[in-house]
Amino acid sequence: MKKSPTTTFKYPHLQSFLNRYPTYKKLLAHAAFPLALTPEYLYCLRENFVPDAPWIAVSDILLFLCEPVGFQLYEMSPKRFHSRLTNYF
Q1: Which SS3 state, helix, strand or coil, does residue 66 take?
Q2: Which pairs with CB-CB distance under 8 Å and at least 24 residues apart come from 8-15?
Q3: Would you call 3 helix, strand, or coil by DSSP?
Q4: Residues paired with residue 37 on neighbouring β-strands, in sequence order
Q5: Low-confidence ranges of the chain (pLDDT < 50)
């Protein structure tokens, strides 16, 4: 049986997240572009671009990979942002 290729990341935190939630990868790629994220914005991205992602993916991404900067406002660290963009595409 042929193994599918896996993406390896420079940051083990991101790699462990994608190993645990492999279906979140497409949503994570869409979430990498904006400078700030809100839960509503991520839900819109999920509904319009990645409808097969589970609804809980939004909270997992915000709580596990982002830092809160205000009321319902989150940002991703530049290291994770750069790693996501260079390794996904």
Answers
A1: strand
A2: 8/87, 9/83, 9/87, 10/83, 10/87, 11/79, 11/80, 11/83, 13/65, 13/80, 14/65, 14/80, 14/83, 14/84
A3: coil
A4: 74
A5: 1, 4, 89
Please report the pLDDT score of residue 89 as a whole number.
46
pLDDT at 14 (0 to 100) = 75
pTM score, whole prediction: 0.74
CA distances from 17 to 1, 4, 8, 11, 72 (A): 26, 18, 12, 10, 22
Q: Which of the 8 DSSP states describes residue 38? A: -
Q: How far apart are CA 32 and CA 22, in angstroms?
A: 16
DSSP letter at 47 equals H
* E strands, 1-89, in order: 66-70, 73-76
Report the C-alpha gap between 37 and 77 in whole angstroms. 12
